[in-house]
Write a structure and sequence with these properties.
Elements (H helix, E strand, L loop, with lengths): L1 H14 L7 E18 L2 E12 L4 E16 L2 E12 L7 E15 L5 E13 L6 E15 L2 E15 L10 E14 L5 E12 L5 E14 L1
Parallel strand pairs: 1-11
Antiparallel strand pairs: 1-2, 2-3, 3-4, 4-5, 5-6, 6-7, 7-8, 8-9, 9-10, 10-11
């Protein structure tokens, strides 16, 4: 966690010094469809499909397919092992494929200010078709939601931030240190059963090669089907 905090501090320093880093920007739309629930007793799963449309919301920039199985140690703590397949379309060329194995710890930290604070820690092992090395990446998300009405959780205000830190260099472009930061503000809307719909704005800051930065402005829609 100390290393991740240092990486995020370095990112803020880069953003505050435009002479050292060029910044490009894009408008995108992300759709996330996730099913999750119990397989049997404490054995749980989730599976998601996530197309991301970028380049001014004109073409599919990335397609992500991810699933995991986990064990629910308590109502507030679950440990997962998962796998993801990511397709990066290349215009006029061969698509880049990324394979990921990951371990994830999801836990509820508490209920401050009449809301709920939770954490998601994910450690990824990454392979890409344009290189041979395995990349290690650590991700940490803090999420807070609060009902807009004291007597109902039909609509919750929702904010979260997720920092990414690469833990090693790879021959396909990963560089040890700060990788990206995602910040979200929006609403969580209750649906029949335990399902929810999350809509809002996501800001994604990506550390690219040669000290350049990329900022994506994302309209984000996520449907969680829980059973």
């Amino acid at each position: 966690m100390r290393r991740l905090a240092l990486c995020l501090s370095a990112c803020l320093a880069l953003l505050s010094n435009p002479s050292r880093a060029a910044t490009s920007q894009d408008e995108q739309f992300w759709l996330n469809l996730t099913a999750m629930g119990s397989v049997k007793d404490e054995l749980v799963y989730f599976a998601e499909i996530q197309p991301r449309i970028g380049d001014g919301v004109s073409r599919v920039d990335q397609s992500l397919f991810r699933g995991a199985v986990g064990w629910k140690f308590s109502p507030s703590l679950t440990l997962y092992q998962g796998y993801a397949h990511v397709v990066l379309p290349i215009e006029g060329g061969k698509d880049i494929n990324e394979e990921r194995s990951f371990q994830q710890l999801s836990w509820t930290l508490g209920k401050p200010w009449s809301g709920e604070l939770s954490s998601r820690t994910r450690l990824e092992q990454r392979w890409r078709s344009d290189g041979d090395d395995m990349g290690w990446r650590l991700r940490e998300m803090l999420r807070y939601e609060k009902p807009l009405r004291a007597d109902s959780d039909a609509v919750n205000a929702l904010v979260y931030a997720e920092g990414f830190a690469a833990l090693n260099h790879t021959d396909w472009g990963a560089r040890s240190g700060f990788d990206q930061l995602r910040s979200f503000v929006g609403a969580e809307i209750g649906l029949p059963g335990a399902s929810t719909l999350e809509v809002g704005y996501l800001n994604q800051v990506i550390n690219q090669r040669a000290g350049n930065m990329r900022v994506n402005h994302v309209a984000s829609v996520t449907l969680f089907f829980r059973h």
